[in-house]
Design a protein that fits this description.
transport, five-stranded mixed β-sheet, seven-stranded mixed β-sheet, 12 strands, 263 residues, alpha/beta, PQQ_synth_PqqB, globular, Metallo-B-lactamas
Length: 263
């Protein structure tokens, strides 16, 4: 279960949202993310990486970009602290100015490449297990959503959703596209396949189904295109022949997939 996204305001300068372990494959599969032959071998159209958490499936791909090409990472101070405490990430700081950190804060929107405004959406998630000894400085530092705005288009990106607040509902209602946590169909999805595993909600994911699931909670949100992303391989909606898939489509949602694009 990994989710890698990229975006650009001009089709030339690109930003990544998180960096999954299969980042190399994603770059190879998308010519837009590859170096320009006209500029020589040592160049990249990637102008920055926005990290929404310190989860391993969101950050390990950063290590694949450890060469001497300058790299900018946008993250909360807490996520930066977690990564800098890990000796593997020292590979990103071998020469002066190899790595630049830019702090993400809900109080200070970022202007990315003069085209796109990015605002952090604080979520109530927690740090991953490997960072359990790190004491969070404040709520909303461990897990973020993002609100991207460019040319009048608003996209809300919330791939990990522990709860839906009134603030988040307001953001969804005024967005043109929302990319929403679709990790699990039901709360007991993991435990039904393997005894002793946690419920969806206990690990920070509202399930899609049920009276208090995402489909029901966002049923009154009519304006945006609604897309489920970050879908676990146990989720039955991945099968387009399933009743669960049809229920999602009938409710006005799309199922994100590899190569999904919004132009």
């Amino acid at each position: 279960m990994q989710l890698q996204a990229s975006f650009s305001g001009d089709g030339e300068n690109w930003f990544l949202i998180n960096a999954c372990p299969d980042l190399r494959y994603q770059i190879e599969a998308n010519p837009e993310l590859q170096p320009s032959a006209a500029l020589g071998k040592r160049n990249t159209p990637l102008h920055g990486i926005l990290l929404t958490s310190a989860d391993l499936d969101q950050v390990l791909g950063v290590l694949l970009l450890r060469e001497f090409q300058p790299l900018t990472i946008y993250a909360t101070s807490l996520v930066r602290k977690v990564l800098e405490a890990n000796t593997f990430f020292r590979m990103l700081d071998r020469v002066p100015q190899q790595l630049t950190w830019v702090e993400i804060s809900p109080d200070h929107p970022l202007l990315l490449d003069h085209e796109i405004t990015c605002r952090a959406i604080p979520l109530s998630g927690s740090l991953p297990f490997y960072a359990r000894d790190v004491n969070p400085a404040q709520d909303g530092q461990a897990s973020l959503g993002l609100l991207l705005e460019a040319s009048g288009l608003r996209i809300a990106y919330t791939p990990s959703l522990p709860k839906i607040t009134e603030e988040l509902l307001a953001i969804y209602s005024t967005s043109d596209v929302i990319l929403v946590d679709g990790t699990f169909w039901s709360d007991a999805e993991l435990s039904s396949t393997h005894a002793g595993t946690p419920s969806a909600r206990s690990i920070g994911h509202i399930p899609m189904s049920g009276d208090d699931g995402i489909i029901a909670l966002l049923s009154q949100i009519k304006k945006p295109k609604k897309v489920f992303v970050h879908i676990n391989n146990t989720n039955p909606v991945l099968d387009p022949r399933s009743a669960e898939y049809n229920q999602v489509i009938q409710a006005g949602w799309e199922i994100g997939h590899d190569g999904w694009q919004l132009n």
